[in-house]
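Researcher: Sequence recovery benchmark, item below. Answer with residues only.
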């Protein structure tokens, strides 16, 4: 781990330590993966202004996201199956985020449950909600998030139907994994991962099994999940969720100016410009390419965040410069988790923090709250 200098180093190590089906789940997009690649590539096209002979002392990355103080404007994205990158993965990542002073967002489709994560942390975390056809289950999830004292609800809007991800289909992905010869071989070549998994009881979807109607095991879970994502989800449901939750609400999955305007009218606290990491509509624009347009349209009405493609502290700075008040990392922290558990997540955050800090200084700024489009080279 001492030779890990950038996020792609963590990615390479995670690839060697995590069974292929689960590494591929984290590291894949829909269809041709064109939007997944564009999320990263479009950041590289943005150039920064280098400034010299300015005071670079006493720098600060501290900021706020939806009024909550953060050590830097970065949160951990909600990611499904996180606990399959490393045993008890959500709990470890949440502890790392808490120690670092940034938000952790738990996915509905997590391996560790809301209650598991609450037991491992001392400060409130955020919870991400998928709206299912079973509205009683949705109400129960919200009640559980309230009981766990979650300080924000992130409502994902762009998964009414599931985008096709070829790698997952070819790998026969499931949680827990299937025991075909191919899957047994994938696990047998990752003995450390297997040893860690044998030491935990958390190997299925903790927020669903035992909580959803008639879901008590993996086979019943598969049937339930296939039927539950609701293609009828509408803006009326957002109002219903907002009233039920009663706390800070973030809407994730906005990639269009018209949708951003409608989201701003809901009274939510923030929107996340996101294409689901390139995992839904392949051929959609990158998140960063849409950010300035959405900020210009609604930035004075609602807080705008960005998710998708961030692989460095420089990417964070570019997003902040283009108007985001906060950013999210999914794959970078998953790579860290797969590479080294809690220490790996901490290392991923530390890499991004150092890159953000140095880049900000070399752009002639000392406070992240002063970053704007002036640091972007024309």
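Model:
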């Amino acid at each position: 781990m001492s030779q890990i200098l950038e996020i792609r180093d963590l990615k390479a190590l995670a690839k060697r330590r995590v069974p292929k089906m689960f590494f591929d789940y984290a590291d894949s997009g829909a269809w041709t993966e064109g939007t997944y690649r564009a999320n990263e590539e479009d950041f590289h096209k943005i150039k920064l202004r280098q400034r010299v002979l300015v005071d670079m002392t006493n720098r600060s990355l501290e900021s706020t996201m939806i009024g909550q103080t953060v050590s830097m404007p970065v949160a951990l994205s909600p990611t499904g199956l996180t606990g399959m990158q490393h045993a008890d993965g959500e709990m470890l990542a949440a502890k790392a985020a808490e120690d670092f002073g940034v938000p952790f967002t738990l996915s509905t489709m997590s391996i560790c449950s809301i209650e598991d994560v609450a037991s491992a942390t001392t400060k409130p975390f955020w919870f991400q909600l998928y709206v299912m056809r079973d509205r009683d289950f949705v109400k129960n999830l919200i009640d559980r998030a309230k009981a766990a004292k979650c300080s924000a609800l992130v409502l994902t809007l762009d998964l009414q139907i599931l985008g096709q991800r070829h790698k997952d289909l070819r790998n026969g992905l499931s949680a827990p994994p299937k025991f075909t010869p191919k899957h047994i071989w994938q696990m047998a070549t990752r003995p450390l991962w297997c040893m860690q998994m044998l030491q935990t009881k958390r190997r299925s979807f903790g927020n669903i099994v035992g909580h959803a109607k008639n879901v008590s095991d993996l086979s019943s879970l598969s049937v339930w999940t296939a039927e539950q994502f609701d293609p009828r989800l509408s803006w009326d449901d957002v109002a219903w969720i907002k009233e039920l939750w009663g706390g800070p609400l973030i809407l994730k999955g906005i990639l269009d100016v018209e949708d951003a305007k409608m989201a701003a009218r809901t009274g939510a606290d923030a929107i996340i410009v996101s294409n689901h990491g390139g995992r839904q509509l392949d051929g959609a624009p990158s998140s960063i390419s849409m950010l300035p347009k959405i900020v210009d349209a609604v930035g004075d009405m609602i807080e705008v965040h960005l998710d998708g493609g961030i692989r460095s502290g420089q990417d964070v700075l570019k997003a902040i410069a283009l108007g985001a008040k906060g950013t999210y990392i999914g794959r970078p922290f998953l790579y860290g988790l797969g590479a080294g558990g809690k220490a790996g997540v901490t290392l991923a955050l530390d890499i991004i923090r150092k890159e953000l800090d140095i880049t900000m200084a070399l752009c002639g700024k000392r406070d992240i709250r002063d970053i704007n489009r002036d640091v972007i080279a024309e």
